[in-house]
Amino acid sequence: MELSDPVLRHLREVVDLPDLAGTRYQLEEEIGCGGLGVVYAARDTQLDRRVALKVMDAQWAGEARLIARLEHPGIVPVYETGALPDGRAFYAMKLVAGARADRYVEGNPPLGERLRVVQRVGEALAYAHSCGVLHRDLKPQNVMVGPFGEVYVMDWGVEGVAGTPAFRAPETSLDQRSDVYALGAFVRFVLPGDAPPALGAIAAKAMSERPKNRYPDVSEVLREIERFQDGLAVEAYAESPWQRVRRFARRNEVLLWLLAAYAGVKFLLFFVRGA
Question: How far apart are CA 126 and CA 117, in angstroms?
């Protein structure tokens, strides 16, 4: 008897479901699937809380140990690691509520909020680099934006992970500047279509084909964005004289209004006295 495609798919799913016997977790539902494994929502029966449970082949078990080394507000904490009866590895982590960054930008948030997300992602990356850890697969699908402004960088890659083509640096030997490239691609992705050209220039420099032409580290990308937000010149963008004047006027708008008011009052007094 031949089985229909839906039945075959269901059987495969049942076979692939993790056997959590002997663990403290009860399986609830699948919530995500990536290159290294499948993520399920589960209940921790000892602490009576919901967690995210990532199940992967044993060869990728090092991912859990890698993430567990990173203690940062923008990196999801790992609670426990272990092995399943079928030999696969798992780790339990905080279950993050919110939306992936690619879905977050579909809601058309203001530019300031988009840059805040970039800032939080960059801070997590910079911290990881200070610990000698690369992400290797930064992309919008691996960033979660919570309902109260939380931003988490997820799915840290391990050596041997190829990454996602649109966000992957062209070189084969990866280092911190490879993550700089991915951050530039992330910036380009989250920017709205009418974003100021200076921000586009920052993303373009971070994504330079040659690593030596990129920013030296993630922190310098963030400093460039901060300069833009503070109304200062951005090194990656060559302004015209008229753009410099406009930027100066925006940054010193209050002062210019005060000077204009002062000049107006002086003129009015001169006119009254001369009348």
Answer: 14
